[in-house]
TrEMBL record:
It is found in: Cell membrane. This is UPF0324 membrane protein. It comes from the Bacteria. Its main location: membrane. It is a multi-pass membrane protein. Belongs to the UPF0324 family. The chain crosses the membrane at residues 57-75, 82-103, 109-132, 139-157, 205-222, 231-251, 257-282, 289-309. Keywords: Cell membrane, Membrane, Transmembrane, Transmembrane helix.
Length: 312
C-alpha cells in the first residue's frame, strides 16, 4: 500500500527502473533493454500513460538537444546529408512498393512501413496514417515493425561503427539515414560520441521535414481528399534552440544543464518504448510485414554504409 492505494509488484519494479533511468548510470541502450525485459517478464503496468508520454517527451528532449548545437556546424552537416536523404527516401519508397507486392501485403501497410523506414519511423507513420485513412491495426503493425528494428539498431550500430573504425561524422550520418526513429538515432549516436550526436540529430531532423511533402504526395497518390497534414513543430523548436545557443551568448551558461536534461529525457523515452514492446505487440506484427521491414532496413543500412565509407 502507498498513500492508501494498493501497489502491484510490476508497478514497484517499473518505478524502480524509471528512477534508475534518471541516474547517470543509465544510458539509452540500457534503458531500452530494461524496458524490453520488463515488458516480457512482468508487463508494463502503465501502457496507456507511457504511450501518451513517449511522443511528447521525445519532442521536448530533441528541442533540449538543440541548446548543445552550433548553427554553423549544423548547416555544414545538413548540406552533407541532403543528397543521401533524397536518394535514400525515394529509393526506399520505390523498393518498398515492389517488395510489398511480392509479399502480397496490403498497400496501406506497405506504404506505412516504407515511409517509416524512409523518413523517421513512428513519427512518419503517425503523420502519414491519418492522411492514408489507414485502419488502427494497419498503423499498429507498421509501428510494431519499426520499433522492433529500432531496438535492434540501437544495440547493433555502435559496435559496428567501432569495428569499422568509422569517424564521428561518418557514424552520425549513417545513424541518421539507416535508423528509423529519432529516439534510436539519437541514442545510438550519443553512445558513439558528441560529434556523432550533433551530426545525427541535425541530419535526422532535416530528414523528418520530408514528412510534409511525403504526406501531401500520399494524399495525391491514394486519392484522399480533405485530409490534414501534421507539421513536425518540434523541429522548429530544435532550430530555435540551436539559433539561441549560437547567437545569444547569455543563454550559453544554461546550455549544459538543458542538454543534460534532454539526454535524461531521451533515456526515459527509450525505457518507455522498450516497455511498450510486449509479446502481444511483437506477435501482432506478423511475419510478412516484418520481412518487408527487415528487407528495406537491410538494403538502406548496407547501401548507405558502403557509400559513406567510400565518400565521406
Amino acid at each position: 500500500m502507498v498513500l492508501g492505494r494498493p501497489v502491484t509488484l510490476r508497478q514497484v519494479v517499473f518505478g524502480l527502473l524509471l528512477v534508475f533511468c534518471l541516474t547517470p548510470w543509465a544510458s539509452p541502450p540500457v534503458a531500452l533493454a530494461l524496458g524490453l525485459v520488463l515488458a516480457q517478464v512482468l508487463g508494463n503496468p502503465f501502457v496507456a500513460q507511457t504511450k501518451k508520454l513517449t511522443a511528447k517527451l521525445l519532442q521536448y528532449s530533441v528541442v533540449g538537444l538543440g541548446f548543445g548545437m552550433n548553427a554553423h556546424a549544423a548547416v555544414a552537416a545538413g548540406k552533407e546529408g541532403v543528397l543521401f536523404t533524397v536518394v535514400s527516401i525515394f529509393g526506399t519508397l520505390i523498393l518498398g512498393y515492389f517488395v510489398g507486392r511480392w509479399l502480397g501485403l496490403g498497400r496501406h501497410v506497405v506504404h506505412l512501413i516504407s515511409c517509416g523506414t524512409a523518413i523517421c519511423g513512428g513519427s512518419a507513420i503517425a503523420a502519414v496514417g491519418p492522411v492514408l485513412r489507414a485502419k488502427d491495426e494497419e498503423i499498429s503493425v507498421a509501428l510494431g515493425t519499426v520499433f522492433v528494428l529500432n531496438a535492434i539498431a540501437l544495440f547493433a550500430f555502435p559496435p559496428i561503427g567501432h569495428a569499422l573504425a568509422m569517424t564521428q561524422n561518418q557514424f552520425g550520418l549513417w545513424c541518421a539515414i539507416a535508423i528509423h526513429d529519432t529516439s534510436s538515432v539519437v541514442g545510438a549516436a550519443a553512445a558513439y560520441g558528441d560529434q556523432a550526436l550533433q551530426v545525427a540529430t541535425t541530419v535526422k531532423l532535416a530528414r523528418a521535414l520530408w514528412i510534409i511533402p511525403i504526406s501531401l504526395g500520399t494524399a495525391l497518390l491514394f486519392k484522399q481528399q480533405g485530409v490534414k497534414v501534421k507539421l513536425p513543430y518540434f523541429i522548429v523548436g530544435f532550430i530555435l534552440a540551436m539559433l539561441v545557443n549560437t547567437f545569444v551568448p547569455a543563454v550559453r551558461p544554461l546550455a549544459p544543464l538543458l542538454v543534460a536534461l534532454a539526454k535524461i529525457g531521451l533515456t526515459v523515452t527509450l525505457f518507455f518504448i522498450g516497455a511498450g514492446l510486449s509479446a502481444a505487440v511483437l506477435k501482432a506484427v506478423g511475419a510478412r510485414p516484418f520481412v518487408l521491414g527487415v528487407v528495406l532496413w537491410a538494403v538502406i543500412s548496407t547501401a548507405s554504409l558502403y557509400v559513406i565509407l567510400q565518400a565521406v
